[in-house]
Write a structure and sequence with these properties.
heterodimer; A: 113 residues; mainly beta; 7-stranded mixed sheet; 4-stranded antiparallel sheet; globular; B: 111 residues; 9 strands
Chain lengths: 113, 111
């Protein structure tokens, strides 16, 4: 069966510091991968998605970036965090279409201080 | 540009069926209806999806109207663990990998 891992579970970082969140999927090949952010009390915002290695689509212009160095690894990064980057970061995967059931990881709760 | 409309909140008594409505009047022919839920402090959980026909799985049933402009998610015997925000999403077929989550319906199961 498929499993999705995210780490760390929680993170407290000062403004201006770098960020690296990692997501890995087990038990499937060539998944679509997604990064979402959920600010406190808000809905899910799609940040990036990837349909293959090296293929990244950005949904929201901001100081975040994503990379997919391996088939089942998705990394979210920032060079300098802002206070507004605080939130719950979720990674998800899906198989190819036409139906894109997405399965979510446990999330990383980031607090920028 | 929300594609779906859901009531912001609903209550349901424990043990009763919870019926969550969703309007998607602008749905196009190749778009599926997906339902997810998010329990507090967790990632969303896939529940069910459908295109035209009604669907049932171990978690829920999905009833889609004949004109496909609305649907209802049914949790047959709601428990306290079903308290969550439920999202109704419509999205197209091949090449439309994104799901846009709206604000959903906050379902509270009352003991």
């Amino acid at each position: 069966s498929q499993t999705i891992h995210q780490w760390p579970a929680t993170l407290v970082q000062p403004v201006g510091s770098p960020l690296s969140l990692e997501c890995t999927v087990e038990g499937t090949s060539n998944p679509n991968l997604y990064w979402y952010r959920q600010a406190a009390g808000r809905g899910l915002q799609l940040l990036f998605y990837s349909v293959g290695i090296g293929q990244i689509s950005s949904e929201v212009p901001q100081n975040l970036s994503a990379s997919r160095p391996q088939d089942r690894q998705f990394i979210l990064s920032s060079k300098k965090l802002l206070l507004s980057d605080s939130g719950f970061y979720l990674c998800a995967w899906s198989l190819g279409g036409p139906v894109y059931e997405q399965y979510f990881g446990p999330g990383t709760r980031l607090t920028v201080t | 540009d929300a594609k779906t409309t859901q009531p912001p909140s609903m209550d349901c008594a424990e043990g009763r069926a919870a019926n969550l409505p969703c309007n998607h009047s602008t749905i196009s022919g190749n778009e599926y209806v997906y339902w997810y839920r998010q329990i507090h402090s967790q990632g969303p959980q896939y529940i069910i999806h459908g295109l035209k026909n009604n669907e049932t799985n171990e978690m829920a049933s999905l009833i889609i109207t004949e004109d496909r402009k609305s649907s209802t998610l049914i949790l047959p015997h709601a428990t306290l663990r079903d308290t969550a925000v439920y999202y109704c999403i419509v999205s197209g077929g091949f090449g439309n990998e994104k799901l846009t989550f709206g604000t959903g319906t906050r379902l509270t199961i009352i003991p």
